[in-house]
Amino acid sequence: QVQLVESGGGLVQAGGSLRLSCAASGNIVSINDVGWYRQAPGKQRELVSEITSGGSTNYADSAKGRFTISRDNAKNTVYLQMSSLKFEDTAVYYCKARINARGIWFRDYWGQGTQVTVSS
């Protein structure tokens, strides 16, 4: 059984910062790509940033220059450091990870989401 748990969300004023964490646990052999997504009310879920197993990163235009994704492989954890937050960053943030678990070939797992609310 593999679980992804996001944490670090909360209420912050515009211009502030938050650091989100996505921790994977269970019978994990390896973790491949991990992505942070967000979904605002009435909108489709969108990719914010992703990081490969080798550490290559990709960002949505809205996140470039403000967000930084990183991973700690020893802790099976991926972070999203968000700075200069804007009202439009308000959303539920989810992580998705492609994980090879014991007895199960690579498949995608989603976390339950963490709410980020930016007050203007």
Walk me through this protein's architecture.
- With 120 residues, the protein is mainly β.
- 0% of the residues lie in helices and 63% in strands.
- The strands form two sheets. Strands 2, 4, 5, 6, 9, 10 and 11 form a seven-stranded mixed β-sheet that branches. Strands 1-3-8-7 form a four-stranded antiparallel β-sheet, with no helix packed on it.
- Strand 4 and strand 5 (46-51) form a beta hairpin.
- The radius of gyration is 14 Å and the shape is elongated.
- The chain starts with a strand and ends with a strand.
- 29% of the residues are buried.
Q: In one word, what is the shape?
A: elongated
Oligomer: single chain
Which range best describes the helical content: under 10%, 10-25%, 25-40%, 40-55%, 55-70% or over 70%?
under 10%
Q: What is the radius of gyration computed over CA atoms, rounded to a whole number of angstroms? A: 14 Å
Strand tally is 11
Largest sheet: 7 strands, mixed
Total of DSSP H or I helical runs spanning 4+ residues:
0
The succession of helices and strands, N to C, reads EEEEEEEEEEE
* Uncertain runs: none
| Beta fraction | over 45%
Q: Give the rounded overall mean pLDDT.
A: 96
Distance between the termini: 40 Å
Class inferred from helices and paired strands: mainly beta
